[in-house]
Every structure is written in structure tokens, then in C-alpha cells.
Amino acid sequence: MCGRFYVAKPEDISEEYNIMRPPSDPIEPNYNISPGAYSPVVTHDKDGNKLEMFKWGLIPSWSKDPRIGFKMINARAETLMEKPTWRRPFLSQRAIIPASGFYEWKRDGSRKQPFAIRSKEHDLLSFAGMYDVWKDENGESVTTFTIITKPSEGAVSSIHDRMPALISEEDRYEWLDQDRKDPERLKGMLLSSKDEELEAYEVSDRVNKSDNNDPGLVEGVE
Predict the structure, then answer these.
(1) Has residue 204 got a pLDDT over 90?
(2) Which one-letter DSSP state was computed for residue 114?
(3) Which residues are annotated as catalytic?
(4) In angstroms, rounded to a whole number, what is the distance separating the alpha carbons of residues 22 and 42?
(5) How far, in Å, CA of 40 to CA of 7, rounded?
(6) Could you say which DSSP state residue 201 is in?
(7) pLDDT band for position 222 (50/70/90)?
(8) Residue spans of alpha helices (H) in the chain
(9) In terms of Cα–Cα distance, which of 86, 196, 218 is closest to 146?
(10) Strand spans (E) along 109-215
(11) What is the pLDDT of residues 144-168, one digit of tens each?
(12) What predicted TM-score, i.e. pTM, was given to this entire model?
């Protein structure tokens, strides 16, 4: 799974993803993004790529209870077409969640050691995601997202059995193009081995508390 991630340089997102309509308000760095928080998300429409702040934890448009979002922070790539909740957004509401890296925890005896995981070559990773728009009882809209996960590979495999599915640079346009609806092709993007070469290193357990949010969280510890 992916339960925490971070965005250290949000100012780089617009150029990296050819954003046509950047947000009017500047996006602040966030070193400890947890479920229920807002994070930058890239989508595409007839005017090009756009960047908006969505809430993490997908609430289906038909849901009566918004608390379901905390159970839907991740979606398994292998079963997206099998579950009605995921089928529609997988085919028509795909997104990229830019991230500088993510955190995962490895059990070490009676405790869990947190690790930060990032690309060895690039400042941003492109998490595959989906979004939906939910309206509360007053008709106010909330746009939420989920991160798609797949079996872990490389540096992550010794820490956890799941990791975010990463969209390669060459697949970004096709992934965001909602006219592309071939489930096998889309699934192939998620499960391919074209992932970034990742590195993982131990960080302070200060990251365990979501209120902690500073650059020191991504610094390695001895």
C-alpha cells in the first residue's frame, strides 16, 4: 500500500507536466501527506493538462458516507476492472499524483522502521491515480483521489509487498487521455517494469506523527 508520501518542490510540477492552467494560489511543500489531506493532482481535458488540489481518499459519487474515503486511499492495479467502485474512474477519471517520494514501514522485531523511498534520477515520481467528485448534503462538491498500487519491486520489495504504480514519462499522455479505454493497455502501463530506479533509506520515526511536517523528515538516519 501507500499510506504516506511527500512533495518537496511543488514549484517544479507545472513545468514537468506541461500544465496549461496552474492553480492561482501557490502550492506549499508537504513532507508528510496523510489520508484526508489535500495534494496536487494532474488531470487532462480538452484544454490540456491541469493541476488542482484534491483530497486523498476516494469518495465514490454515489456514496452516502464520506468517511468511506479513509478506506479507499489505495486501489489494487490487478483488480480495477473487477470492482464496481473502481471500474468507472479507471476507464474515465484517471490522474497522476506527483510526488517527491513516499514512506513505507518495515517491521523490525516489535517496532516498525520508517523508510523514505525516492527516485535515484528524478525529483518527481508519477503515481498512477484515479479521482471522483462527491457532493455533500448541501450540494458542495469535493474531489477526491486514490493511489493505485501494485506488487513491489526493487528496493521496495524488502520493505513492503505493495508500492505505488508509477506512470512512465512516455505513457503520461495516454494515461491521462480519458478517451483511451482499453483496460488491458491501461493495466499494462501499471504493471510494467519501466519503473524508476528507486532508493530506500531509513528515516526518523517522527514521520509516524502526521502533524510533523518539515524537511528533516526525509533526511536519513544512522
Answers:
(1) yes
(2) E
(3) 2, 104
(4) 10
(5) 9
(6) E
(7) confident
(8) 13-16, 84-92, 172-176, 183-191
(9) 86
(10) 111-119, 125-135, 141-151, 162-164, 198-202
(11) 999 999 999 999 999 999 999 999 9
(12) 0.96
